[in-house]
């Protein structure tokens, strides 16, 4: 008795496109973070402010990239809205989990971690925000599809 698992063409294409956008989200995160850090380099920041500066710009980049990616995917790939979230985002999710695991394993035992740790945290926050925005964009688009065609707004 063997169980067969088939992934539809729409699911494979949707997953591939979401995987292709990983470098775009990370590069935009690095660029935005560099711009922010350069512009505030002379300010004295509290610990909370430092965390905000290290998370918000990269999360914003992931949000922007994956809202655009999800909109494009759902416009171009037929039946992509019916693809389960875990399949659509398998590669970005695996990458984010890998980054998070590396951060957890490397940070406590490595004195020089923060030399490259910021890049990992920026990438991780960009992917997490991207995954959340992709899910939200898909939910919004699915909601639009479910509205009756004859429904009119007043």
Describe this structure in words.
The chain is mainly alpha-helical and 154 residues long. It has one domain (9-144). It is 75% helix and 0% strand. The chain is built from 5 helices and no strands. The protein has helices at residues 9-39, 47-76, 85-88, 90-106, 113-146. Helix 2 crosses helix 5 (113-146) and helix 4 runs antiparallel to helix 5 (113-146).
Helix and strand topology:
Blueprint: H1 9-39, H2 47-76, H3 85-88, H4 90-106, H5 113-146
Helix pairs in contact: 1-2, 1-5, 2-5, 4-5
Count of the separate structural domains: 1
Helix coverage percent:
over 70%
Structural class: mainly alpha
Classify the oligomer: single chain
Q: How many helical elements?
A: 5
Strand content: under 5%
User: If you compute it from the alpha carbons, what radius of gyration comes out, rounded to the nearest whole angstrom?
Assistant: 19 Å
Q: How many strands in all?
A: 0
Kindly, what is the distance between the CA atoms of the first and last residues, rounded to a whole number of angstroms?
57 Å
The residue-averaged pLDDT reads 84
Q: What's the overall geometry?
A: elongated
Uncertain segments are: none
Order of helices and strands: HHHHH
Taking the sheet with the most strands, its summary is:
none
């Amino acid at each position: 008795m063997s169980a067969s698992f088939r992934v539809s063409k729409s699911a494979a294409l949707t997953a591939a496109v979401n995987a292709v956008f990983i470098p775009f989200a990370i590069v935009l995160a690095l660029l935005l973070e560099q711009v922010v850090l350069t512009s505030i380099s002379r300010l004295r920041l509290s610990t909370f402010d430092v965390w905000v500066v290290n998370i918000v710009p990269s999360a914003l980049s992931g949000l922007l990239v994956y809202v655009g990616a999800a909109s494009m995917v759902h416009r171009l790939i037929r039946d992509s809205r019916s693809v389960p979230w875990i399949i659509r985002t398998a590669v970005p999710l695996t990458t984010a989990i890998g980054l998070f695991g590396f951060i957890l394993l490397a940070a406590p035992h490595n004195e020089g971690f923060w030399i490259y740790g910021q890049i990992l945290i920026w990438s991780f926050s960009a992917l997490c925000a991207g995954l959340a925005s992709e899910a939200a964009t898909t939910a919004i688009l699915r909601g639009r599809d479910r509205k009756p065609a004859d429904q009119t707004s007043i």
